[in-house]
């Protein structure tokens, strides 16, 4: 009749092997993202509050609405926007990484993106343990990735 086909062989050929992005590449991506965000945020804070923002205690924890927008809202909106539109921030693009849904390897949903961003706070608060976890996890997931159901993998060209 017909030839018997080994389904396991076909599956391996059709689905490329996933290469997870490890701790140090993700640190490099985070540094790059921090630098370009600071290039945007620092001048805004300087224009709004002047040198006193960095040298004086007169503002306390929050200097005002521009401070909240520049340091909390802007980074969240930009990060989530990059994740949804391009599956990576500029830093992740530079190191050749992309963020995907762990189950489908497809794009993140808006809910996943928000959960992932909020998950960073959970990852950072206990002495960065959730971030350091990337170095020890088999799939190189930080707690924020586990919370949102995401993976950071090598981007295929």
What does this structure look like?
The protein has 157 residues and is mainly alpha-helical. Helices cover 58% and strands 6% of the residues. The chain has helices at residues 7-14, 23-49, 52-55, 65-86, 90-94, 110-124, 129-132, 143-148, and strands at residues 97-101, 150-154. It has a two-stranded antiparallel ribbon with strand order 1-2.
Notable characteristics:
mainly alpha; 157 residues
What is the secondary structure topology, with strand pairs?
Blueprint: H1 7-14, H2 23-49, H3 52-55, H4 65-86, H5 90-94, E1 97-101, H6 110-124, H7 129-132, H8 143-148, E2 150-154
Antiparallel strand pairs: 1-2
Which structural class do the helices and strands define? mainly alpha
Rg computed from alpha carbons, rounded to a whole number of angstroms = 20 Å
Mean pLDDT: 91
The H-and-E topology, N to C, reads as: HHHHHEHHHE
Main sheet: strand order: 1-2
Count of helices? 8
Q: Which stretches are poorly predicted, pLDDT < 50 over at least 5 residues?
A: none
The general outline is: elongated
**Number of DSSP-assigned strands:** 2
Question: Roughly what percent helix?
Answer: 55-70%
Specify the biggest β-sheet.
2 strands, antiparallel
- Content of β-strand: 5-15%
Distance between the termini: 40 Å
